[in-house]
Design goal:
The protein has 10 helices and 17 strands. The strands form 4 sheets. Strands 4-5-9-10-11-13-14-17 form an 8-stranded mixed sheet. A 5-stranded mixed sheet has the order 2-1-3-8-6, with helices on one face. It has a single domain, classed as Alpha-Beta Horseshoe (pyruvate-formate lyase- activating enzyme), CATH 3.80.30. It has helices at 19-30, 48-55, 111-124, 144-147, 149-158, 195-201, 208-220, 238-252, 271-280, 309-326, and strands at 8-11, 35-37, 58-62, 70-72, 76-79, 83-84, 89-90, 105-108, 130-133, 163-169, 186-192, 202-203, 225-232, 260-266, 294-297, 303-306, 330-335. Helix 8 (238-252) packs parallel to helix 10. It is an alpha/beta fold. Helices cover 33% and strands 23% of the residues. Strand 15 (294-297) and strand 16 form a beta hairpin.
Length: 336
């Protein structure tokens, strides 16, 4: 798909002190994007829905001064951020309830300082391997064309003896990563799903075919590879469509002989998320009927609605069998 182009960019004055900040601003000027130098982002929609829509087209070039990274289990030891929020409009996204009414995209330009913090965490854990996730609150590939930061991260981890990077994306703009000497220290994981889920709930993201072809490109460069199938949904014809997904993957990755991992996450929602989703997507086709679910206590102190045990077990067994039957070199890291 085409690279995301914002409607407006706000520039933190601090960002102009960094080379990446200057490069990004020049790129935005070439695209004729309206730019405002400010420490404050102003989103002035007439209502919450308009605020959300405008925010998803607004970026803020700024800096990330975080010194102590948060844990990120089960994905990695720590998470760090090259940006926050993303251009996607995924109706079910768990970030719906954490990024407020105006989830504009912060894009961090102080990449060398971010990498210094990562190095400190690696050194403090020496001689153990330390893993890092860079997609917990964003999609780093979606905004890569504005900064080139992810490429710099891959190059950094390539030269790190004890550091490993994990990338997650729903976007197919991966060409800038294909000729990097990654040293097998960066693992790409693609968030994939059926055509029904992508077409109905994952707006402004790469298509079913685009993601699979992007994973094929990454596999051709021999990166460690994985897939997150999430959220797994039960709907009419779900078994047929998840089978199509796995068979299509098998076909396109037939020449990739390295191990492949899968992470399986069933659809869930909280009461707060449901209320917000129905406000932002009043015509949603998401199944948000609590009567069809059971409550599960979440790790962040909230109850969430998941499929009943019988349905959940059916999902896990069916998709796990599909994976193991078609990928001899696969491992399912977890189902939740």
């Amino acid at each position: 798909m085409k690279n995301f182009i914002p409607d407006k960019a706000y520039i933190d004055p601090r960002a102009l002190k960094y080379d990446v900040g200057q490069i990004s601003v020049n790129h935005l000027k070439e695209l004729n994007i309206p730019i405002e130098i400010s420490r404050k982002v102003v989103i002035d929609g007439k209502n919450s829905l308009e605020n959300y829509s405008k925010s998803k087209k607004t970026i803020y070039l700024t800096v990330n001064k975080q010194k102590k990274l948060k844990p990120c289990k089960p994905s990695a030891d720590y998470q760090f951020s090259l940006s926050s929020s993303c251009p996607g409009h995924c109706e079910y996204c768990y970030l719906q309830t954490t990024q407020g009414e105006k989830p504009f995209m912060k894009v961090f330009v102080n990449i060398d300082e971010i990498l210094d913090v990562i190095k400190t965490h690696i050194d403090n854990n020496h001689p153990n391997i330390t893993t890092f996730e860079c997609g917990s609150i964003t999609d780093p590939v979606a905004l890569e064309h504005l900064t080139g930061n992810l490429k710099k991260c891959i190059e950094f981890f390539s030269n790190s003896e004890n550091g490993r990077l994990r990338v997650i994306t729903k976007y197919d703009n991966v060409d800038s990563f294909l000729n990097i000497d990654h040293n097998n220290h960066t693992k790409f994981r693609f968030s994939i799903n059926t055509r029904y889920v992508i077409n109905n709930f994952e707006h402004n993201t790469s298509s079913f075919e685009e993601r699979i072809m992007a994973s094929k490109k990454i596999s051709s460069s021999q990166y460690p590879l994985g897939f997150i199938i999430a959220p797994i949904m039960i709907y009419d014809n779900w078994k047929t469509e998840y089978k199509e997904l796995i068979i299509k993957l098998k076909k396109e990755l037939k020449d990739y002989n390295n191990p492949i991992t899968f992470e399986l996450i069933q659809h869930r929602f909280t009461s707060t998320a449901k209320e917000l989703i129905l406000t932002r997507f009043p015509k949603t086709k998401l199944d948000l009927n609590e009567d069809n679910r059971q409550l599960k206590w979440g790790p962040y102190g909230k109850f969430k609605y998941v499929y009943p045990k019988e349905k959940s077990s059916e999902l896990k067994e069916y998709i796990s069998n599909l994976i193991y039957e078609n990928f001899e070199n696969s491992t399912i890291e977890y189902f939740t």
